[in-house]
Amino acid sequence: MIGGASIFGGVGGYAGTILSVLNSMLTFLNVGQAIQQVVYGVLVLALKNMTVLMQPLSEPVVIRPFKTEADYEAALAELECMIGRMEPGTPDGNRYEMLAALVEAYEEANYPIEASDDPVAMIEFVLQARGLTRKDLEPYIGTRQRVWDIMEKRRRLTLPMIRRLSKGLNIPIDVLAQEYDLDLACHHRDHAA
Q1: 126 exposed, middle or buried (CB, 10 Å; 0-12, 13-18, 19+)?
Q2: In degrees rounded to 5, what are phi and psi of residue 107?
Q3: Would the pTM count as exceeding 0.90?
Q4: Do the Cβ atoms of 96 and 86 come closer than 8 Å?
Q5: By the 8 A CB rule, do 183 and 154 touch?
Q6: Is 26 exposed, middle or buried (0-12, 13-18, 19+ CB in 10 A)?
Q7: pLDDT tens figures, 133-172
Q8: What phi and psi, each to the nearest 5 degrees, are found at residue 11?
Q9: Helix, strand, or coil here: 5?
């Protein structure tokens, strides 16, 4: 950051930069020491009043880093409760965004998704890693029968399903969009019976 020590404590504040520029200007203009002191005093008072009068841009969002699996699980539970109940740009919306970013970072570090050519295998992996069941896929895929058909490779994922799965389960679209073989033998067995 530009500047030296802040007049309010700390290092690297803009106030230090302002004072440095002002000092250079006053020295260049050959202003007397007494006038320089008055100008500095007025500036310091103005800066203090400005910081007191300035409203915070938003309410602070208090979130601590995940140190345990329990922290991660608690964040997932909180995120699930917040879905559909918060507005972006609000304190709750900001908290949701921060928690989601931390969950994503935690999952990348602790549950790395290995490249797979099989989208169904990737969905199964995510379900297992997050302790979810096929029933949890219904909001993304559709009815219980449709979920069963997709997971048994009797039917392909559609683009809307891929988008919802990617957004909801944080699975990359390029993984979900991979071609995969349908299990046609299973399909024919069912119809033959």
Answers
A1: buried
A2: -65, -40
A3: no
A4: yes
A5: yes
A6: middle
A7: 999 999 999 999 999 999 999 999 999 999 999 999 998 8
A8: -130, 145
A9: strand
